Amino acid sequence: MWCYRRILKISWTKHTSNEGVPGQLNKDRELLSTIKAKKFALCLLVIFIIELAVGIAAAVYKNDFHKGIKQLMRESMNKYETNEADRMAWDNLQTKLKCCGVDKNNDWILLLGKRPLSCCHATRDGSQPPEAIHCNSAKTGDEILYSDGCFDMIEYKAEEASKVLIGVGIGIAFVELIGIVLACWLASAIKSRS
């Protein structure tokens, strides 16, 4: 019992019986539990507000993001012949996404006067890929040439992934709201019990 007297800072000169100490301790525990529940609810509310603000900012600045990505892609296209990293990135991007250029397959012709081989593909499985002369002379709509621009393909892939992220975000927000309600309910239940 002496340790509880020390925790509660009850003086030995104060005439408190040993039966009164646990009662006082329990009252303080309930008060601490109420404060902890309210702090937890407040923390969840702050996190929820921050998530909401980030979501709104992402929606507002979506067009600026698109413009920035397009500008970076064009700058990288300009470095295609001089920078090995840009060349590898473009070849990999165009091969995997089956696209050519930023907006359309003529972007390369307008910029460099020729297309990279990664803009063209074999017409059948197992056949040889086209040669550079055929790739450069291909017109939009030809079978060997990828017709879509890479920015559109990246945008499509990002929108597909964002649907999953939005669903997960809504699920997490819903769980947080339930946590806020339950923490407030717990705090009021502890308060009304005491």
UniProtKB/TrEMBL annotation:
Transmembrane stretches, by residue range?
Answer: 40-61, 164-187
**Keyword Disulfide bond in annotation:** no
Report membrane topology: Multi-pass membrane protein
User: Predominant location of this chain?
Assistant: membrane
Tell me a GO cellular component: plasma membrane
Q: Kindly list the places in or outside the cell where this protein is found, as annotated in its UniProt entry.
A: Membrane
Q: Which UniProt keywords apply?
A: Membrane, Transmembrane, Transmembrane helix
Matching entries from Pfam families are given as: Tetraspanin
- Tell whether Membrane is among the UniProt keywords: yes
Q: What is this protein called?
A: Tetraspanin-7-like
Give the originating organism.
Sitophilus oryzae
What taxonomic ancestry is recorded?
Eukaryota, Metazoa, Ecdysozoa, Arthropoda, Hexapoda
Quote the gene name from the UniProt entry.
LOC115884644
